[in-house]
Prior knowledge:
Layout lengths: L4 H9 L24 H4 L1 E8 L8 E11 L5 E9 L4 E10 L7 E5 L2 E2 L2 E2 L5 E8 L5 E5 L6 E5 L6 H13 L8 E2 L10 E2 L5
Antiparallel strand pairs: 1-2, 1-10, 1-11, 2-3, 3-4, 4-5, 5-8, 6-7, 8-9, 9-10, 11-12
Helix pairs in contact: 1-3
Amino acid sequence: MRLTAAAAAIVLGLFLVPAPASAQATGADVRPVRSVDLERYQGRWVQVAAIPQPFQAQCVRNDNAVYTLLPEGQVKVVNSCTREDGGITSLEGRARQEGPDSTSKLQVSFARTADGWNFDRPGTYWVIGLDRDYRWAVVGAPDRMSGFVLARTPTPSKKDIAGMATALLRNGYDLCDFKVTAQDGGAPKPMSLCPGQ
């Protein structure tokens, strides 16, 4: 079952949100945005919704990531969330550009070695949607096995939610694969973007 951008935005934001009626999921390739200013991108991002990943299995709410640009051009990544018992789980990693001109295509490693970070089997992190003011970002991968909808606040605006949904659909994602993330001050509980799932 595929959702229109308008329907997805309603569920995603828990609001009635206008979204472009023409924004339908397509079979198009996943395409990163042209460029990302990594200095502006750094800071704290709240996970609004995501395709559930195994490393998040213990998370029940408040998934977020903090990115810090390092002097050597890599990005320090700290993912954290709240577990069922109320404790906090954190995981630190590093991200690097896939190539010298690919600021929107990153590789991420959470495996540390004695010599640094192991990028032999990195995770793919492509920024496929980005607000011009860096209020929200959508992250995906060419195989669409992962997807993250991020914002600076747990309650993004209706306009921002519509932009997020459109970015996913434009890149051929099935929004039914996504689950809204419970956040203090945001969505009260995790829920599927598709009713009945």
